[in-house]
Amino acid sequence: MIQISTARPKARGFALFALGFRPFFISAGLVAVVFILSWLAMWVYGQTLSVSAYYTGSYWHSHEMLFGYTTAVMAGFLLTAVRNWTGVQTLNNAPLAALVLVWLAGRLLPFFAPATWIAVGDLLFLPLLAGALIKPLVKGRNHNNLFFIGLLFLMAGCNGLVHAQLLGWTQTLHTGLYGMLYLIVLLIMILLGRVLPFFTERAIDGSLRLVTRPWLERLNVGLLVIYALSALFWQPPLLHSGLAFLLAAVNSLRLAGWYHRKIWQVPLLWVLHLGYAWLIFGFLLAAVMPWWPLLPTLDVHAMAVGGIGMMTLGMMARVSTGHTGRAVHQVPKTVMLAFALLLLAGVVRVILPALWVGYYTLWLTLASGLWVIAFVLFLWVYAPYLWQARPDGQAG
Asked: Rounded to the nearest 10 degrees, how much is the dihedral formed by the CA atoms of 20, 74, 55, 307?
């Protein structure tokens, strides 16, 4: 008799370039730690880095958090998600390593290269990422998700506006940075509409069906596009405030439809819900800022530190757990601590400066420290998962 075994052999060894989320999530975590520490040193101690020959300190910080950290998270997520959506293998092994090196060049060239090399090196990454995703989407007949390619090219255009000013050609840097921020928020809003109800239903009760209203999804995207265009090109205070308030209301309605009291038993759920709540709070701050003088970027940091920070950390933790063959409901206490520290970092960075502006440097220092510790904990737990092969023997 022939014995047929269905057991899979356990994979062993180094698997950092087996799938896109592995190298890019480690890269994002490292940037979140090293670059924030560098920025904090520049702010508190007045130290200068050689990067200032091209970027000034504040522009470097803004650019690297948007086009360095966040694009790494996006690349890891999309390269992994597109393989799941289409069943077609996305970049792995040597081609994936090459794409990571292109991203890394954009982070390192400002420290030693001429200005033109810095711009070209940084501008290559997003079009190459888009190109890497087009083939599996078309081959897998997943045409509904081709709009992600358009978003990536728009983001590349925003990066071009930043570098155009840094090269002395235009005055478009702020348009590029804020345009990228709004495109990231748009991408998160679209993805949340797909995954947050699904994650919540699966984690809490397989029979649970949460409310997703198509008209509300379309209204949210339309309002966000109008708000972004108004903020970038035409800023009458009443219109800006009104649109921000409407966005806060619409997204509160979305979040309420996906809420269930049992989310607090699932860390990989509540971190996403709280991150979404920070985005809503950011819109509320934007709504009141024309009428209630606050520090000029509190709304931006509510969206960036609290919203984008918590949701990207939560999504990286979830993907790094599930796609390395581990149970998503088994979250180490170290990871829960990282989520809590990042939540506290948002409070210290946004709310405390609004109440006690005289201690601004203290709040900035504390918030940066909390952010850094949160991502050190993420790397401590997940880096071994990401560079080692799956324990269940499956590919990826």
From this structure: -140
Of 362, 186, 344, which Cα lies nearest the Cα of 279?
A: 186
Per residue of the chain (396 residues), give pLDDT as tens.
333 333 344 445 889 999 999 999 999 999 999 999 998 888 777 654 545 678 877 899 999 999 999 999 999 999 999 999 999 999 999 999 999 999 999 999 998 899 999 999 999 999 999 999 999 999 999 999 999 999 999 999 999 999 999 999 999 999 999 999 999 999 999 999 989 998 888 888 766 778 788 999 999 999 999 999 999 988 788 888 999 999 999 999 999 999 989 999 999 999 999 999 999 999 999 999 888 877 788 999 999 999 999 999 999 999 999 889 887 777 899 999 999 999 999 999 999 999 998 999 999 999 999 999 999 999 999 999 999 998 877 877
Measure the CA–CA gap between 36 and 12, rounded to whole angstroms: 34
Report residue 277 as tokens. 């709540």
Angle (CA) 304-75-252 rounded to 5° is 40
**Position 237, amino acid:** P
Q: Which two tokens stand for residue 318?
A: 């979830």
d(CA 147, CA 151): 6
Q: Where are the domains of the chain?
A: 14-171, 205-385
d(CA 372, CA 353): 19
Nearest CA-CA partner of 186 in 340, 82, 70: 70
CA 198 to chain centre: 20
Cβ atoms within 10 Å, residue 12: 10
Contact (CB, 8 A) for 387 and 14? yes
Q: Among 308, 310, 342, 314, which residue's Cα sits nearest to residue 328? A: 314
